[in-house]
Design goal:
Chain B: Belongs to the binding-protein-dependent transport system permease family. CysTW subfamily. Chain B: It is found in: Cell membrane. The complex is a heterotrimer of chains A (363), B (283) and C (267). Chain A has 363 residues and is α/β, with parallel strands linked by helices. Helices cover 42% and strands 18% of the residues of chain A. Chain B is mainly α and 283 residues long. Helices cover 75% and strands 2% of the residues of chain B. In chain B, strands 1-2 form a two-stranded antiparallel sheet. In chain B, a hairpin with a 2-residue loop joins strand 1 and strand 2. In chain B, helix 1 packs across helix 12 and helix 9 packs antiparallel against helix 12. In chain B, 47% of the residues are buried. The chains are: A alpha/beta (363), B mainly alpha (283), C mainly alpha (267). At the A-B interface, helix 1, helix 3, strand 8, helix 10 and helix 16 of A face helix 1, helix 3 and helix 11 of B.
């Protein structure tokens, strides 16, 4: 008797169990992500605004899956943790395009099918988007990592000089944007260096200045937490801020402004490209074309996550005067002339810079 | 014969759970341990065994500092939570009429039914300069200038204590209500005052409740990333934050694994210290 | 309770601590009705603007659905596996029970972050794509020990006697489980499922590390926090709070209400 009972007893729960697992697998597996008409994009958070994405989804009857990240290091780590074919569209820091191209991640773009000539001259950056005469990405948005502030709490004239932020006047009132590249570049400007002067030799100087800055800082935060600190009054100044941090908040706090200091500013730029491993390159290209169209550009420029200048100058025709005022549209030429691009170190220096940044956070 | 098939049956029943735990817990831990002695060089993984990551942990000041910060915060939180929770648990068990106790406990748990991420964020709104506390103090004239508690270790500790006071209140309360009243009565009959009764009778008998709660607090607190990340203002990073930096900014899995192994060692030590109170008993 | 100093002190202390416990939630809910974009004083509502924004946010609603799905299925799997293991070990006490118990409860003594790291590296190493399924697997890892421990502790000897009686009367093992053991243990099963569901519903770090596009609610809230400060976060938090609150009350009425009626009729 016992033998018969035992086999039945074991197999019955097992089949219940496997049924449960099976149901689970089917239920979980059939979730979105497998259908043919979907596009997977790895983006900065400004691309997640439904006002930007929905018109494209409706026009082509597709779904755009978005994964947001901050910082190229993070993006590369996500790509590395993925399988080939997982991703279709990549939005990446302009200056990091060569690094990404070298890793073989991006596919060549048909230059003739994109409005490259409408892009502001100084932001075309063909030296980074083109390798051996082939175009791998196109600039879509840019802006500045400079100084954002609340004019009811600080003297706007002070904001034109970086050294006041290292002084005692605004101690404990400064928020620092948590992105090591532009912040170290700004620190270099404060020290009278160019961002490209950062090296293993000058790094100790940068580190010392950063640590002084930390003593003045109320907090160090990513896009939202630093913007929040500025908007809620937690901080009066956001070092590394700019139109991207201020534009979206001005409706609710008209006291927020930004300025490019006399020492110069750091130019941020985003480029968009298509993954080499993508199995939907045509649809991905259509998405890039949409983002680069004047309408797409206007929506991207005023995205609910952060604002920025549209790379395509034609976007100015479809943007309101108020939007352009907030972006300081008319001053772009002067700003661009005084700005430096993100300095991109080699892998070894990059590692050292990240270590310094972690130490900076840890203080 | 019958005994043998019984045993086989029992193993059969336990097998799915054991296999699941082995496949998705023990094996991953082993793989992680293996990764921790590999190394990330540039963009690739070097699979030659090395202690480089552990050496880096000791040599790079921000890692050791992270461990130290974590231990400080965790001990502070655990002790503060016990000190705050014990009186509340005692009031609930002794002073509140029995039929209201369940309602009171339910009310204590209620705020934790909102999402855990949101809870940390709402503390940010409460503590920030221009936030609720600062505003209240200014309007009542208690302070002239706005104050900020957010973005600091204090904020992290407040966020943690908020959750763990509730947790410890529950475990200590559960212990207190099981306490036979006759023990206390006996102590008093023998001439012990309230303080001596508490120290020699009540406290030892509620120690299991305290230790279970303290261990839970320790483990949950030292491994938490969200609370310090939202409330800590990126200052004085805790160990989980340094670990996440390795994953998110560098994709340095070997280094992250080494940190995780160290974290696990710390938790294991805590477990060993509390283990005699954590036995799984059958009713 | 008499008005003695000790009692007054007790009331004050309890009030202060309850105030501390409730403070952030009250603030959260209040500023979910904020009109402007910045959820700090002065309060300029009430407005339902951010609730409208939340319901219009398709990613948020998808995440809500994903959370429900993952929590339900992972809790069911945890409960099933936990029940079987507890039954096998508590009833038949095979040799090595102690060691198996140790293995089964081990995940409880490790931080979620470590479990998440292990799974991330393993899935990555083996090239298993991350999805809701991988989140679910992780949640079973954390909830299985919980379900096992609860059920194992509830399997007392008097129940074993009843089961033995059923077996002696010719019931098969399946019948014993389904018709005898399960009904006797249903409150414990219920509690275990409920707890597992809650932990899965609110779990963040595993869901963050082993997910890709399909994320659960806590991860989506985290994304939202990182992509724009506004009272929509408050609205989502308040909404989750409301759902849980109703859930707990209903549950309380069903479970404890029945017991109360029983207790009274027994008198």
């Amino acid at each position: 008797m016992s033998k018969k009972v035992s086999t039945g007893a074991i197999s019955a729960p097992r089949s219940i169990l496997s049924a449960a697992v099976l149901v689970g697998t089917i239920g979980l597996g059939s979730a979105p992500g497998l259908a043919a008409d979907e596009l997977n994009a790895l983006v900065w958070c400004d691309h997640t605004d439904p006002a930007l994405i929905q018109p494209f989804e409706e026009k082509y009857g597709v779904k755009v899956n978005l994964k947001e990240y901050e910082g190229t290091g993070t993006a590369l780590s996500i790509v590395e943790q993925s399988q080939p074919g997982d991703w279709d569209v990549f939005v990446v820091d302009g200056v990091d395009v060569p690094r990404v191209v070298a890793a073989g991640i991006l596919a060549e773009l048909p230059a003739g099918e994109l409005p490259i000539d409408d892009v502001f001259d100084q932001v075309q950056m063909k030296d980074v988007t083109m390798v051996d005469g082939k175009m791998y990405a196109i600039m879509e948005k840019f802006g500045y990592n400079v100084v954002g502030y609340d004019k009811s709490k600080v003297d706007p004239a002070d904001m034109r000089d970086l050294s006041t932020l290292w002084g005692d006047k605004y101690k404990g009132k400064i928020a620092v944007y948590d992105y090591y590249i532009p912040l170290m570049d700004l620190t270099a400007l404060y020290l009278g260096m160019k961002p490209s002067d950062i090296s293993t030799e000058t790094l100790p100087q940068i580190k010392e200045a950063l640590f002084q800055l930390k003593d003045n800082a109320a907090m160090v935060g990513e896009v939202v937490s630093s913007t929040t600190a500025l908007a809620t009054g937690e901080a009066s100044v956001l070092l590394g801020g700019g139109e991207w941090a201020v534009g979206v908040m001005q409706d609710d706090n008209p006291n927020l402004e930004w300025v490019l200091p006399d020492q110069g500013g750091i130019l941020w730029s985003q480029a968009i490209g298509v993954f080499e491993g993508s199995e939907k390159k045509d649809l991905a290209l259509k998405f890039v074309q949409y983002i680069m169209s004047p309408e797409g550009q206007a929506r991207l420029a005023t995205s609910s996550c952060f604002w920025g200048m549209p790379a395509n100058s034609k976007a100015g025709d479809v943007m309101t005067d108020d939007q352009k005022t907030r972006l300081l549209w008319d001053e772009q030429e002067a700003f661009l002339a005084k700005s430096h691009r993100y300095y991109i170190p080699d892998a070894e220096l990059d590692g050292q810079m990240l270590d310094v940044w972690t130490e900076f956070l840890q203080r | 014969m019958i005994a043998n098939s019984r045993i086989r049956q029992a193993y059969g029943f336990a097998a799915p759970a054991v296999l699941w735990t082995a496949a998705f817990f023990l094996v991953p831990l082993a793989i992680m341990a293996l990764y921790s002695i590999w190394q990330r060089v540039g963009m690739s993984l070097k699979t030659v065994p090395t202690l480089a990551n552990y050496i880096a942990f000791v040599e790079k000041s921000f890692f050791l500092k992270g461990l130290l910060n974590s231990l400080e915060v965790t001990f502070t939180v655990t002790i503060l939570s016990i000190l705050l929770a014990y009186p509340l648990a005692w009031i609930l068990a002794e002073k509140v009429p029995a039929r209201w106790q369940r309602i009171a406990l339910l009310a204590a748990v209620l705020p934790f039914w909102t999402s855990y991420v949101v809870r940390s964020y709402s503390w940010l709104l409460v503590l920030s300069d221009g936030g609720v506390i600062s505003n209240f103090l200014m309007q009542t004239g208690l302070t002239q200038e706005s104050i900020s508690l957010a973005n600091s270790r204090t904020a992290t500790v407040i966020g943690f204590v908020h959750f763990f006071v509730m947790l410890l209140t529950l475990t200590i309360y559960a212990n207190l209500v099981q306490l036979p009243k006759s023990y206390i009565k006996a102590a008093q009959d023998l001439g012990a005052g309230p303080i001596r009764t508490f120290i020699h009778v009540v406290l030892p008998l509620t120690l299991p409740g305290i230790m279970v709660g303290a261990f839970l607090t320790f483990v949950l607190c030292i491994g938490d990333y969200i609370t310090p990340q939202i409330l800590g203002g990126n200052k004085e990073l805790l160990l989980p934050q340094t670990l996440m930096l390795q994953i998110q900014r560098r994709a340095d899995f070997p280094m992250a694994s080494a940190i995780a192994m160290i974290l696990m060692a710390v938790v294991t030590l805590a477990y060993a210290a509390c283990s005699r109170w954590l036995k799984l008993e059958r009713a | 309770m008499k008005l003695r100093p000790a009692n007054i002190l007790s009331v004050l202390y309890a009030a202060a601590l309850y105030g501390f416990i409730f403070l952030p939630v009250v603030v959260l809910v209040l500023f979910s009705f904020q009109e402007s974009r910045i959820p700090v004083p002065p309060f300029d509502g009430p407005s339902l603007r951010w609730y409208a924004a939340m319901f219009a946010d398709s990613r948020m609603m998808e995440a809500l659905g994903n959370s429900l799905l993952v929590a339900t299925l992972s809790s069911l799997v945890s409960l099933t596996l936990g029940f079987l293991a507890a039954y096998g070990l508590a009833r038949h006490k095979p040799p090595g029970t102690g060691a198996l118990r140790l293995v089964l409860t081990a995940p409880m003594t490790v931080s979620y972050l470590i479990i998440a790291m292990g799974l991330l590296i393993t899935f990555n190493h083996l090239g298993i794509p991350r999805s809701l399924l991988t989140i679910g697997i992780g949640h079973v890892v954390i909830n299985l020990p919980l379900c096992f421990a609860i059920l194992y502790s509830q399997m007392g000897d008097h129940q074993a006697n009843i089961e033995r009686a059923a077996r002696d009367l010719g019931a098969s093992e399946v019948q014993v489980i389904l018709l005898v053991a399960l009904p006797m243990l249903w409150p414990a099963c219920f509690a275990a499922f409920f707890l597992a569901f809650t932990f899965s519903w609110d779990e963040f770090i595993i869901a963050l590390l082993v997910s890709r596009f399909d994320v659960t609610l806590p991860v989506e809230i985290w994304n939202m926090l990182r992509s724009g400060l506004n009272p929509q976060t408050n609205a989502v938090g308040s909404f989750v709070f409301l759902i849980s609150f109703v859930f707990v009350i209903v549950l309380d009425v069903i479970v404890f209400g029945r017991r109360r009626v029983k207790g009274e009729s027994a008198k």
